[in-house]
Automatic annotation (TrEMBL):
Gene: smtB_3
Organism in which the protein naturally occurs: Paraburkholderia solisilvae
Protein name according to UniProt: Succinyl-CoA--L-malate CoA-transferase beta subunit
GO MF term list: CoA-transferase activity
Entry annotated with the keyword Transmembrane: no
SUPFAM superfamilies in alphabetical order: CoA-transferase family III (CaiB/BaiF)
Top-rank EC class of the record's enzyme: transferase
Classification via InterPro entries: CoA-transferase_III_domain (IPR050483), CoA-Trfase_fam_III (IPR003673), CoA-Trfase_III_dom3_sf (IPR044855), CoA-Trfase_III_dom_1_sf (IPR023606)
Length: 412
């Protein structure tokens, strides 16, 4: 499916994408596993998504639906784009056989069930890799495939708490808030994709076999925690919530203007000097004690107060004009409405328009990252439940009578 405004590229893109020829079998639901498969599909992999015949992936009914009464999630258009939906009853023996046959042809299997479920279904890695030694299986779960917590249910929100993100987010006098998206699931999905591509490289370049990529959601979040571990290990320091500022990196904060707030990152040494000069504080710009970050940290409040005083009489647009001219990183806090109107978003075609099933236009985020020779693409939107079942079964050698019987017996 082509957007109404095709993405610009200076090179002739490879029609199949950089992952053309890679076959992915997705056994997951909701966010982490499907997001990982989505990323692979956006760059050319063939993604076959297995769904329960009775309702499919619950994400089909999450958040805003279109049409609002009984429709399909608008999120589904993004999360399942470029995927083939195949309905299979995993509790039926013939359903399991379909999955085994698909896995035999796959390069990657992605699943995010609770550990042990696939083994109970006789679809664990030991079974699937017996017929396909090169198979890479990405397993995303709350706590990983081992350890005393492996059998606990674990969602992204719990991982954000256990991984340390919630503890350092928000203001010290308020309970830790959540980030407004499912960031724990998304971070885990990115780790899953990275692991899958590394495992494929090992198989194809180093002559290795397939392997399991074990991603625990809490460990993916923990991996993003920067310096908290050595700080605690060496000094016993527990980083706490500090509101909008970035602790130990000065100045980096959110500051109020007359008509709203902006974010300023003036924390590199040369940028700090330019920022102070731009706001009329040459005394701070040329203070030898503030030349480096370790000297600025003890005087964080003084520096923040100086910036806030300068901004207090200015609008966002006026302040950004001065800061941009001084080459200081700064920006307004965008809503999605701001994104639709912003010239940078428009120039890079980050929001593209497609046709929904009934012909209505639907805006979707463009594929990221941008590759110059083999860019990703949205070939079709999230499919209807079981839309590709017959097509995929035919490709496995099932004849029309057999497929009809599988439907009649509610196996597919």
């Amino acid at each position: 499916m082509s957007p109404t405004a095709a993405p610009h590229t200076t090179q002739t893109p490879h029609a199949g994408g950089p992952l053309a020829g890679v076959k992915v079998l997705e056994l997951g639901t909701l966010i982490a596993g499907p997001f990982a498969a989505r990323l692979l599909g956006e760059f050319g992999a063939e993604v076959i998504k297995i769904e329960d015949p009775k309702g499919g992936d619950p994400l089909r009914k999450w958040r805003k639906l279109y049409p609002e009464a009984g429709g399909t999630s608008l999120w589904w258009a993004v999360q399942a784009r470029n995927k083939k939906s195949v309905t299979v009853n995993l509790k039926a023996d013939e359903g399991k056989e379909i999955v085994r046959r698909l896995a035999k042809e796959a390069d990657i299997v992605i699943e995010n069930f609770r550990p042990g479920l696939l083994e109970k279904l006789e679809l664990g890695y030991d079974v699937l890799s017996a017929d396909n030694p090169g198979l890479v299986m990405v397993r995303l779960s709350g706590y990983g495939q081992s350890g005393p917590y492996r059998d606990r249910p674990g969602f992204g929100a719990i991982a954000e708490a256990m991984g340390g993100l919630r503890h350092i987010t928000g203001y010290p006098d308020l309970p830790p808030p959540r980030i407004g998206i499912s960031i724990g699931d998304s971070i885990a999905a990115l780790h899953g994709v990275i692991g899958a591509l590394m495992a494929l490289h090992h198989r194809q370049v180093n002559g290795g076999k397939g392997q399991v990529v074990d991603v625990a959601l809490y460990e993916a979040v923990f991996n993003m925690m920067e310096s908290v571990v050595p700080e605690y290990g060496v000094y016993g320091m527990v980083r706490e919530r500090t509101g909008a500022s970035l602790p130990g990196i000065v100045p980096s904060n959110t500051y109020p203007c007359r008509d709203g707030s902006i974010v300023i990152g003036g924390n590199s040494d040369p940028i700090f000097k330019r920022l102070m000069s731009a706001i009329g504080r040459d005394d701070l710009a040329h203070d030898p004690a503030l030349a480096h970050n370790d000297g600025r940290v003890p005087r964080t409040q003084e520096i923040d107060d100086a910036i806030a005083a300068w901004l207090s009489t200015r609008t966002i647009d006026d302040a950004l004009a001065v800061l941009n001219a001084a080459d200081v990183p700064a920006g307004r806090i965008y809503s999605v409405a701001d994104m639709f109107a912003d010239p940078q978003y428009v120039a890079r075609q980050m929001i593209q328009t497609f046709k929904w099933q009934d012909g209505r236009d639907i805006a979707l985020p463009a594929v990221t990252p941008k590759l110059s020779m083999t860019p990703g693409d949205t070939r079709w939107l999230g499919p209807a439940l079981g839309e590709h079942t017959d097509e995929v079964l035919q490709s496995l050698g099932y004849d029309a009578d057999h497929i009809a019987r599988l439907h009649a017996q509610q196996i597919v």
